[in-house]
Amino acid sequence: AKLGINFVADFVCFGEMLVEIVVRDEVTPKDYTHVVNHLKATGHTRALLLNFDEAIVRDMLRHLTRCCEQG
């Protein structure tokens, strides 16, 4: 069945494995469901769900912003 929407994975490695990236304090059941739905929609059988801690990403972006502003 067609979903009626376009799906674009964050990454597809070697044409075989979906790689989904989230930025949260912790991975939730909704994140897992999201990945399973993407597997079904694409026909892939393997996926990797990567979570980057929100506070670390926020600090990194703040640092990058300051570096860019200083030239």
Main traits of this protein?
24% strand, 71 residues, alpha+beta, 3-stranded mixed beta sheet
Unreliable runs, pLDDT <50, ≥5 residues?
none
* Biggest sheet, spatial arrangement of strands: 1-2-3
N- and C-termini, Cα separation: 51 Å
Overall SS class: alpha+beta
State the helicity in percent bands: 40-55%
The overall strand count is: 3
Radius of gyration: 16 Å
User: β content, as a range?
Assistant: 15-25%
Largest sheet: 3 strands, mixed
Tally of individual helices: 2
**Shape assignment:** elongated
Q: Give the mean pLDDT.
A: 83
Order of helices and strands: EEHEH
In short:
This protein is α+β, with helices and mostly antiparallel strands and 71 residues long. The chain has helices at residues 29-42, 54-70, and strands at residues 11-13, 17-23, 46-52.
